[in-house]
Design a protein that fits this description.
Elements: E1 6-11, H1 24-30, E2 52-57, H2 59-67, E3 73-77, H3 78-92, E4 98-115, H4 124-134, E5 137-142, H5 145-159, H6 162-165, E6 168-172, E7 182-187, H7 192-197, E8 203-208, H8 212-216, E9 220-235, H9 242-260, E10 264-272, H10 276-285, E11 294-297, E12 301-309, H11 317-326, E13 330-336
Parallel strand pairs: 1-2, 1-3, 5-7, 5-8, 6-7
Antiparallel strand pairs: 3-9, 4-8, 4-9, 10-12, 10-13, 11-12
Helix pairs in contact: 2-3, 3-5
């Protein structure tokens, strides 16, 4: 038997807390991957799946670990993965091919540019153009300095300041500038808002959900840079390792099944033979089956099973059960679904 294992980057933080975030523990369990140790700070183990190995780490680091194939796949945010991709590009002149293979629909945040209030009647482009015209060296602060740098390079190209402000330096807050012209981006470990509002830098890039903290500081959002969410990422080279690739597909399909089943239930009920056609008509009119309904024929009754979304406001489950009862259905059972995998082609990986 092969000793190959799939090494999975398991993110420390809110996803590891069963009372916060998207509750990754429950998602893994519903997918068939019961974990042990993850919610206690590690080490993460998968006692029922010896082919899986958990590598506990920070989402900020997984992009680099994927790039050097220290982990095979990793669970992390779009923002931090992209930050590492851009760091490799700007600092090490390497293009790394990382692929988002599955969205988890959790951890939604915005990456935005923040400034002190702009003069009434002016747009952010006006503010930035004025600033670049007056200052040969501008300063910025961000927890994601390479995302900030990539954004800045795009902006100066659009505004026509590539020649005068093309130089850059990424350094710790607040070390002496290494350059005389261009942009100095200070890497920070939080409280970006305070550094902007107190005038320590010209502007910043911040991670936000609602924007309430920014409003509390009296800051303005100049523009949105990126909308980020948690997903599963892989190094594209995993396809050249057949055993790991098969394990990755197995893992992803089962995670997809758990995601697809969220908020879905299975309705099981019986219908007397003379009530089958009205029930079929009702199910068809409300699109409650795809190609054909699932039916088990008995002598006097037919058993139906119907999958439903419990959060569909157009077709509330309570109404459906009531209307089925009126059509002669009996013994309606509602069963929560842990997993539902439509087919082996459910993921494009």
């Amino acid at each position: 038997m092969s000793n190959t294992q799939l090494v999975i980057g398991m993110p420390a933080g809110s996803l590891a807390d069963p009372n916060r975030g998207g509750n990754l523990l429950t998602l893994l369990k519903n997918a068939g991957f019961v974990s042990k140790g993850y919610d206690q700070g590690g080490p993460t183990k998968f006692p029922l799946n010896a082919v899986l190995m958990g590598w506990d780490g920070r989402p900020q680091e997984f992009g680099s670990q994927l790039a050097i194939e220290e982990v095979d796949i990793a669970i992390g945010g779009d923002d931090w993965i992209q930050e590492r991709v851009l760091e490799f590009k700007y600092e090490y002149h390497q293009d790394i091919q990382l692929e988002k293979v599955l969205s988890l629909g959790r951890g939604n945040v915005r990456i935005v540019i923040i400034v002190n209030p702009i003069e009434a009647g002016k747009f952010f482009d006006d503010y930035l153009r004025d600033l670049l015209s007056k200052k040969p060296l501008v300063t910025m602060v961000s927890e994601m300095p390479y995302l900030a740098l990539d954004w800045f390079k795009q902006r100066i190209a659009k505004l026509g300041f590539e020649q005068s402000h093309g130089g850059y330096s990424v350094q710790k807050f607040k070390t002496p500038p290494k350059i005389d012209a261009g942009i100095v981006i200070y890497e920070t470990w939080g409280k970006t808002e305070a550094k902007v509002v107190n005038g320590s830098v010209d502007f910043g890039m911040e991670i936000t959900q609602s924007g309430s903290a920014l409003r509390n500081y009296g800051l303005q959002i100049g523009e949105d840079v990126l909308h980020s969410e948690t997903g599963i990422w892989a190094n594209a080279s995993i396809r050249s390792h057949p055993e790991k690739y098969e394990l990755a597909k197995m893992f992803l399909l089962n995670i997809y099944g758990a995601l697809f089943a969220e908020n879905k239930v299975l309705l099981l009920f019986n219908a007397p033979k003379n009530n089958v056609q009205p029930v079929l008509d009702y199910l068809s009119q409300n699109n409650l089956f795809a190609d054909e309904p699932t039916m088990n024929e008995g002598v006097n009754f037919t058993e139906f099973s119907v999958q439903m979304d419990t959060k569909d406001p157009k077709l509330p489950i309570a109404r459906v059960r009531y209307e089925l009862l009126k059509l002669g259905a009996t013994g309606i059972e509602t069963i929560p679904l842990d997993s539902c995998i439509p087919s082996i082609d459910a993921i494009g990986f």
